[in-house]
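Before a computer can learn anything about folding, someone has to put a protein's shape into writing. The outcome of that step, for a single protein, is printed below:
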Amino acid sequence: MTFVSTGFPALDSMIARGGDCKGFPRGGLSLVIGQVASGKTRVLKSICDRAHENGKRVVWLEPPSMATRAKFPVVQIDTMEELARLTSSLLHPHKVKDRADLIVMDDVQLLAVETEGVAAKAKIFSSIFHRDLGPTSVVMSWQATRNLEVPK
């Protein structure tokens, strides 16, 4: 298995949990969860900056309310359905050279769902992540709605 490094050796080591990991796994989904204003977006943006500087193709997806400025492409999306369509085109472009190395979806919980209900949102998430991610690392940030206990 190959990885997209976070650019921070200590963080790469934490992700590994004692394994041979060197960052976010290619073909895998990583979830970054934290309280409001805990630094999720800042850390992920730093990771993307470093990956971009090292020649990786990075795409940042976010709700329109975010307005992130970056050296890499930032795409604003309104709905979960739009997220599913865009993710599919980034994972399976017409030309392999256009495939993203790292896709970051920031504050996904803020996206609207065209079809109402929790079941609809679950179905869309399933359609995004139960497919071949190929060599792309996908990272999502999600705002925690209650206190989290950190595993020791």
About this structure: Helices lie at 9-16, 40-53, 80-91, 118-129. The longest strand covers residues 137-143. The beta strands are 3-4, 24-25, 29-34, 58-62, 74-76, 102-105, 137-143.
